[in-house]
Amino acid sequence: MSQQEFSFELKNTDNGARLGNISTPRGDIRTPAFMPVGTAATVKGMYPEQVEALGADIILGNTYHLMLRPGAERMAKLGGLHEFAQWQKPILTDSGGFQVMSLAKLRKLNENGVSFKSHIDGSSHLLTPERSIEIQTLLGADIQMQLDECVALPADLSEIKRAMELSVRWAERSKTAFGTQPGHALFGIVQGGDNEVLRLQSANELTDIGFHGYAVGGLAVGEPQATMFEVLNYTTPALPTDKPRYLMGVGKPDDLLGAVKRGIDMFDCVHPTRAGRHGHAYTRFGVINIKNARHKEDSRPLDVQSPNENCRRFQRAYLHHLMKANEMLGAMLLSQINLAYYQELMQARALQSQKTDMMITLLKPVRDGKEATSTP
Amino acid sequence: MSQQEFSFELKNTDNGARLGNISTPRGDIRTPAFMPVGTAATVKGMYPEQVEALGADIILGNTYHLMLRPGAERMAKLGGLHEFAQWQKPILTDSGGFQVMSLAKLRKLNENGVSFKSHIDGSSHLLTPERSIEIQTLLGADIQMQLDECVALPADLSEIKRAMELSVRWAERSKTAFGTQPGHALFGIVQGGDNEVLRLQSANELTDIGFHGYAVGGLAVGEPQATMFEVLNYTTPALPTDKPRYLMGVGKPDDLLGAVKRGIDMFDCVHPTRAGRHGHAYTRFGVINIKNARHKEDSRPLDVQSPNENCRRFQRAYLHHLMKANEMLGAMLLSQINLAYYQELMQARALQSQKTDMMITLLKPVRDGKEATSTP
Predict the structure, then answer these.
(1) Do B315 and A47 touch (CB under 8 A)?
(2) What is the pLDDT of residues A328-368, one digit of tens each?
(3) CATH classification for the domain delimited by A7-269, as one of 2.60.120.10, 2.20.28.10, 2.30.140.10, 3.20.20.105
(4) DSSP annotation of B301
(5) What is the predicted ipTM?
(6) N or C terminus: fewer CB in 10 A for chain A?
(7) Does the annotation count A208 as an active-site position?
(8) CATH 3.20.20.105 residue ranges in chain A?
(9) CB of A46 less than 8 A from some CB of B
(10) What is the pTM of this model?
């Protein structure tokens, strides 16, 4: 790998929406980008070459899961996460903090960090900003995330403020711990709940510290979509225009489109693969619940005009059958189909010579979140 | 599809071992052949194109499962099993009888057939020789099997004899029901347990009726391998040399090699995929239990010299991790790896100009059934 720097180029804008490119020694990340989630060193139900064939430029790994199994030091001995998972393109890892708070047992958070017990074997662990960076470096992550504290909404203002200020102090410690890692990046995470003053304070203080990119955290944690968009309306303008912006843990297709309009460049979410494992297929016609009995005798494919062969090839009746019979291939196909659809959503970025509103316009017909009422 | 006939060509023999080719309108089946089992219209954990890439010329479908879900008439409406499962090469279906006896509830067998209740929804069904053929024809099976009664060993001689004679009567009814189906085949099934007189009687009576191929049933049902081989020793010589011979539900690699030596041409078994889902990998070095802790930090692939990329590419530590974390990719990879190994075992058939004993010799170093004690 060359010692090429991590850099971001903003290629075009249309109102808030941005078209860009992140350069890393492991390859370019075209933005807006959706990062498939490879929680435990695998995007669930998919071969790594399938993920690459989707057009995904980067995947996400979860520090919490990987630090517990196989363990960060062991992963480093084995050559790092890229080698382990046979994924040679960029990887972003989260800090582990969010999943400690949602999955681990006996969590205790203080100024220093968060101690917890593994949900797998009950072993004790301590995650500090420094240890999180150390783990992410051992994993070999191209983009690392600061440790932060994420508060579920709704929450008391005092609680949101306390967590935001702690996150800023952890951001500084994370940056110091990260040091200089040529070709690698560290992102800060804006917190502040649904409060404009706190969000702006967080954005400004993080910008003062200086990061390779900025994430918006603490959203998609229980609030309505309108609240999330409202927070983005005042938060993204407070972020540097020359750095990538990442909305963490989001979301459904219309969340992505609304966030792209509001200046977000990167996304990750388990939703497409999880929905696939539950029999929900994302298509141009909306979400299709393939387990519904009306698909039992439907010999049509999901979308005869899809660029994705799996959407054109297999009968709805077959997908229905596979899911009803709990056959692995059902989850495999619907995970691939949904991630392909998410990548297609991001494909309008490929219109490099066009305004990004073409993307928004192109994708507007997508009706997300409800069963399509008529299909051709 | 052309109206090409179903035919078998015996290309070479070496003592008992045979090298041959079955021609069907959907393509050739090179023998000896291992048929991956696609119970519910899917080889578990594999895309159909992966199965084809293994070199498999034919897969097996289970009539019992498919008649219950999605149902034979529905499958026919949807275009048949090949279209449904997106597998265009030949398919063999069993008669359903074996799985009725092992999976269904409230089974009642009489001269006419076997009535039972579905293990899925409790619905009542009747499987007769005629209905089994009707279902297999609706599914579109290239090779169909007569309904038979299979007795678990050890068993009383009178019971073995009764079931064998019933199976012969059902064979006749099956042939009548099958009628003339150009390009399709019907196989009879030799029964008779571990009794030579009964096996020979069965083989002779079935040969008199006349089938496109002959299966040896009622083995791998609890008896030692030596018993199975002994039964083959006297059964296969009683079968016509100009028709393919199929040993049902067998087996592990050394079962296959021993049976090939004794004149068997075709096999099916769920073992390679089931073993894969349980973390057992078949390799030239023997069976590797990848969940064993000694693989936790082993960065070596399963077999650096394997023709199968998945064997060369992924670290043992990664496969170990995937299985411990219950990740689908673990079962997917080990299913592919085991089926690839089974196909490799059959590949020596590709030595068309060589004696088949080269195959046997080539494959002798395989140590099956025990954990390899040393690996390179």
Answers:
(1) no
(2) 999 999 999 999 999 988 876 544 334 444 444 444 433 33
(3) 3.20.20.105
(4) B
(5) 0.93
(6) C
(7) no
(8) 7-269
(9) yes
(10) 0.93
